[in-house]
């Protein structure tokens, strides 16, 4: 074996080991994210900078705090955190004199968390969509509310039956327009993205607002044009609230 081949083999082996190590770390991070989501907890806090993670007096948020706790008993995570904290402190100290932001992969940033959540969301929606297609028919529940920015957010819930009744929140979409036609198009776009045929919709439930139940331009009327056999039900929770 010549020198170049030997060098290349060592480099390849080292890279494989590094990939294996990063994947093992990522597995722990993914499981932590899944746990926090399952428990309905918040992920973040104010002190998330990597160079502050060795300060136990600060609140680093549930995500980082759980990982830091695990690192006390997991040599792989401990080594990763030690490396990240050391590099982050060095970068932070030299930030004033250096040009550009610089950066290194930590796998514990908000960007990583958001990307993993998006992937989990896509996988869940894919599984739900398959169940709905297998069920053959479904109904839609629709409602809107304003967030803190006074922007309408539309929640879309699909109800279907397999061996049991399922009720799944499949989307929360920002509404730039709230007439019945616009809401119908919004719902159809969500269904299309999930590869679900709107013609299989057999029912829908909304509140009593005119843009939902209007005889000529309400959401229910526009939906009936695409799914003629569906039945509209006035949401009983809204009825009781009146």
From TrEMBL:
Residues 6-218 form the DUF4371 domain. This is Zinc finger MYM-type 1-like. InterPro entries: DUF4371 (IPR025398). It comes from the Eukaryota. Transmembrane segments: none annotated.
